[in-house]
Amino acid sequence: MPPVLDDTMPFSVGQEYSTSDLLTTRFSGDSGNEFFARYVEIKANRCRIATELQARVKEGIHTNLSVKIKELLAEFGSNDSARTTNVETLGQIRKLFEDEIRNARSVLSESYSELLDESELTDPLEFAAFFPKWWNEGVYRYWDDETHWDHFYISRYLKDTSSDRSQAFLTNLSFIRRSNAKDAITAVHLFELVNALKRRSVPILCHPIQNGIPEMLRFSGWGKWHRVISKPVKIEDPLVTILGPSVGLVEKHRERIPVGQYLNFCARSSVPIRSISPSNQLSYVLIVSFEGQNVLIAGDSGFVDFGVKPRSRTYNGALLSELKDLQIVQIAHHGGANGHFYRALMDSGLSDSCVPLYFLLSHGPEDPKRPSQEFFSFLNEFGKESPPATLLFTGKPPSCKQADLDLLAKLTHRAIGAPSSSGDVRLKFRASWTVTKHSIQIP
User: Fold this and answer.
1) Cα atoms in the Cβ-side hemisphere of radius 13 Å centred on 15
2) What does the alpha-carbon distance between residue 75 and residue 72 come to, in Å, rounded to a whole number?
3) Alpha helices in 107-160 (DSSP H)
4) Strand 239-244 relative to strand 358-361: parallel, antiparallel, unpaired?
5) What gap in Å lies between CA 93 and CA 90, rounded to an integer?
6) Per-residue pLDDT tens for 211-252?
């Protein structure tokens, strides 16, 4: 399960987290309902506070999100872990936060609202990067106390009528609304999944790796995985190599800027600041190995902890070496803009060693942002000195410039059966790989 820390609780800077700090642990415990309700209610209140601050800059902005959420959370007051959760209620909670994301976007002009779509591409902001050292000592201020929101900086800069400053401030607040809404939606999904696993008595585990050190687990029967110190020459049992997320990345996300101090910063800035949500960066990066074949499952990972240091474009050698021999690569983030992922694959030497090689892109039909231009740049570079990979799509790519279309037509596997705008992908391995199901035909 994803090792997402509960960011609604105060903590001491530099304090190591424990498994009890993880949302998965809290949701799966005897007080799971209470933890879930508290977490979601805090996220709704943060959205409300950000919206009320936007209303001081722009007329016509209002919200009743926190009121509606509180009403829906009434049934979660019981700590009875055996209690059946109302699936319809969870769906209503999720929809309210999905509406909040749309409302946060609607506040902005078109040019600024586009920035919200790019917010996933950057590393999370770190508190220490923007404030003096003394702010990092002791415990972070518990910023949900609303008495701190009208202090000097907010009051002063909300009076600034500069159009650029107002738009930047509205954008930063929309990032905060969006980030908290996405956190809440993630919590709903996680809560549902945890309860489903508990009903089936499936063990629940969060397993980040130590920084820069791949970890290998060998399958030896249902529910039984044993740690392997080094990769065996001959893999007779399924082997999973975990490349991320790392303990350092989990801790880094907990040390995101508390929103109270974040607002101080963005109120003084005329430049929009990007998302502070952990988002997808805590996705697991796994290589599943069996009978000499290796499949990379990258999920929505940003590969941001592959660097030898934060924001570095030099990647950890131990992690890169695991990427050299792959037969199937699930392209991270559905083929979106993900610079670290593409650069890590290039630096690994993958293109020199794997024939055949399949790239799987799982996105919807005519997705306007996928495949990204970064993906096309990667494809052009990847196939320069070796046979290119074969592309497999679950959704038909949108119209693109002719050079990119020609590249897709050259590399994409033909449709098997009648072409369609979307469909599953299936491969079978018997001595060699065969594509048995693929619905996308280009052009």
Assistant:
1) 15
2) 7
3) 110-118, 152-157
4) unpaired
5) 5
6) 999 999 887 766 677 777 777 656 677 899 999 998 888 877
